[in-house]
């Protein structure tokens, strides 16, 4: 159906409540949105508002309390496999080289490892790791390790990428370098991306749209269309339009933090 083609991800009236020894904790409240095929959407919000919970529900790793998630019109009621996921920790195996860590995804999916070696090498080359294919994780910097984990998520060429604070543990310069690499890669491959971050500038630089979440129980306070032209360039971060977008998001988050303090 046309709507299924138009919207890669559809979230409708999604709520999540956790039962704890101290009582019920409502993490998400009636969240709804659509993400189109090939669109890069970031989610920002106060700490602990439920951003990662939302991503896990979209991936099928966590059940919703109420509401629904569809991907290409298919209801997500169990782990959805036709995607790539990148977490804040790189989760590399220290006993495997960079290339073998990338190929781990292929092995776990029961695919022909030899058939993907060339693609794995090409991905590492594109991410600036051409000279480190045979190095072990302990021989790589934190930024290099995270680049390897991104390549591992991309090796099977998934149409959808879910990324949960993937650069959170990196220094500012390395974050900017990898963000630029990621922007170029996604523009070239037309991936659909749902990206969780605490960095306002990172969200603006990478995204077509940014969803600003409220404090818990989280809802979407505002959806902001990012009007920066593509392909994205580092110099755009010095432009007035970039500052306007970051300023608007910062004001919204500041307002939510104040509301959280009052409550």
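Q: What amino acid sequence fits the structure above?
A:
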């Amino acid at each position: 159906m046309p709507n299924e083609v138009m919207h890669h991800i559809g979230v409708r009236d999604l709520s999540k409540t956790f039962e704890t020894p101290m009582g019920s904790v409502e993490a998400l409240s009636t969240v709804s949105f659509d993400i189109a095929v090939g669109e890069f959407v970031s989610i920002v919000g106060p700490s602990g508002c439920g951003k990662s919970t939302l991503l896990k529900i979209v991936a099928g790793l966590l059940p919703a309390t109420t509401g629904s998630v569809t991907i290409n019109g298919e209801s997500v009621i169990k782990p959805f496999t036709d995607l790539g996921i990148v977490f804040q920790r790189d989760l590399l195996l220290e006993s495997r080289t960079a290339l073998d860590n990338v190929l781990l995804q292929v092995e776990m999916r029961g695919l022909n490892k030899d058939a993907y070696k060339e693609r794995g090498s090409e991905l590492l080359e594109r991410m600036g790791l051409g000279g480190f294919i045979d190095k072990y994780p302990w021989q790589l910097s934190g930024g290099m390790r995270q680049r390897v984990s991104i390549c591992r998520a991309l090796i099977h060429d998934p149409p959808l990428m879910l990324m949960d604070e993937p650069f959170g543990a990196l220094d500012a310069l390395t974050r900017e370098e990898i963000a630029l690499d990621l922007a170029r890669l996604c523009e070239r491959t037309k991936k659909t991306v749902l990206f969780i971050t605490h960095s306002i500038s990172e969200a603006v630089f990478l995204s077509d749209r940014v969803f600003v979440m409220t404090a818990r129980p989280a809802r979407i306070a505002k959806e902001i269309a990012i009007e920066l032209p593509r392909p994205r360039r580092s110099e755009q971060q010095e432009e007035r339009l970039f500052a306007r977008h970051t300023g608007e998001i910062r004001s919204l988050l500041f307002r939510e933090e104040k509301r959280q303090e009052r409550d």
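Q: And what stands out in the fold?
A: The radius of gyration is 19 Å.
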